UniProtKB/TrEMBL annotation:
GO-annotated molecular function: DNA binding; DNA-binding transcription factor activity
HTH iclR-type domain: residues covered: 13-74
Task of the protein: May be an activator protein for the gylABX operon.
IclR-ED domain span: 75-237
Source organism: Leifsonia sp. NPDC080035
Domain of life according to the entry: Bacteria
UniProt lineage: Bacteria, Bacillati, Actinomycetota, Actinomycetes, Micrococcales
One annotated GO biological process: negative regulation of DNA-templated transcription
UniProt-recorded name of the protein: Glycerol operon regulatory protein
Amino acid sequence: MASPSDDAPAPHSQTLSRGIRVLEVLADADRPLSIAELAAALGVHRSIVYRILRTLEDHGLVVRNAAGAAQLGPRMATLARSVSRSLQSAALPQLSAVANELSMTAFLAVLDRHEVVTLVSIEPANAHASVAQRPGTRHPLATGAPGIAIQSALTDEQWRELPDEHPRDEAAIARRRGYATSHDEVIPGIASVAVPLVVHGQPLASIAVVYVASDRDTEAVGGRLREAAAAVARDLG
């Protein structure tokens, strides 16, 4: 007979949780962070962060510079390439075509719990200047065109799995016209257009572009992105 404890949730590993949190903090940073900065971010003693960093270094997930500041290591890029590999492979040709046709940075973002995470990004080949969108960049689901586009595709069941999230009014507008827009939400002065990408067996995603805010025809951009999303969905069939 099963004991009452058999149905109890397994205890979490505090050390593993802290190690993952270190990786998240480093991913969000725009520069290497010192042990003191990481300790402050995690709310723990520096000796704990030091031991975590040593382990992450051993696995190539973190590297430290001459001053001892830490940043994500090359092994992280290898792991990232394995995330939704088929989705990334199918999206890359479309992202390249969109980026070069529109002279905008095009990217694929996926829903990760309450956040939107950039998986892969392509900058236009011949543009004099473009907006960088670093893979691994994340922002709240309720912020920016990629998040609004994903919101527009969420089913009632999926919304129930996100009890702390609420649909923006813009999500209903995006659902009607087929694309979402944003301006000055994630990065000041930067605009974005995005469309949802729904593929069975893959995380809910969006295909988007970012560019310096201008008078670009967002309807035309949205139409081109819908074509790209449809092509990716057909490829993954």
